[in-house]
Design brief:
Length: about 375
Amino acid sequence: MNLSNENSAEKLHIQTIAVHTGYNSNSLDGDIMQPIHLATTFKRKVDGTMNDYSYTRSNNPNREAVEKKIAAIEGGSEAFAFSSGMAAINALFENILEPGAHIIIPDDCYHGTRNLLDKFFIRWKVDFSEVDMTDTKNVADAIKSTTRLIWMETPSNPQLKIVDIEAMTSIARQNKITIACDNTFATPLLQHPLLMGVDFVMHSSTKFFSGHSDVLGGVIIVKENTAISERLREYQQIAGAVPSPFDCWLLNRSLATFPIRIPLQCNNAMALAKHFISHPKIEKVFYPGLPGHINHKIAVKQMQGGFGSILSILVKGGKQEAINFAGKLRIFKHATSLGGVESLVEHRRSAEGAHPLSPDNLLRISVGIEYIDDLVNDINQALE
Ligand code: PLP
């Protein structure tokens, strides 16, 4: 896939953008890699006016560089980096929803997003409908005169449901409602919601963008500059939930290898999904790449770069069997989060807080870049 370079009409491949976009050395040292700008404040010009940077909450060279790279990777006009995925979601909700507004979210939405609405936006009397978005009619039926936002997550967390992005965009357009997509699971290497008509894309950059489980971050990418995107920039600078220069630097560095990490992770996940499906101790496998997955056809249509590296399984028996399996694994670690180079497994229900939705025997697996035979052998010994 080709995306345009910020500085020229030349079309560059995502692999090239991920290495180069966002930083051109202009220092006397000619450093090839951007240094970390730890300064919180920057000198004004002799005439008293501001230079490009004034104060790090407003902007910082490392944040600017990573935002440019992410905007280009996702095919948007501008990106806004935040200190976590939840801070990014909160920023978008604060600027699109008003008191008394209505929002439609997926019925198996990331539990943090649901919590944000349930615990905090409730003070604004924001009303939310949780809808099975795999049937677009459910979304059309849920629209009210107060609906301001349709929030998609595809694939969803943790049941890997797939939403038809184009169909959903067309419903949003017909009803003049803003539409946003949490693209954390798919990443722009697999799917491009902005090119399919979505207004805002959000990422927990803690996950695949960082890829090494050592940076917390979130980002919103806009298709084009609008009054809302200008407000988002102001909100980011004033509310101040911004990532540190070091986190931006780490994220920028990690993004360089993102287009080569993802295909390997997807291949490993597909191989594991196929392995699990024929295993006598596994009841069910949720992976959109399997022909038997309920939304496989839509996944084939819109996930053109692969089916992702997250899968969920139901272990035969119940919670105890699932926990025992997770505990016996040697290479996979039992921990929350996903998208890193290392394989993780998690008993989701016990991580879902006050409104758990996952079956008790569900384990979510984030597949890393380890050698596939080692992963398969680890699973076999743990299921023995
Ligand atoms: N969206 C999805 C799909 C997630 O999985 C997560 C975290 O797990 C988030 C958003 C929130 O991101 P963060 O943990 O970076 O705040």
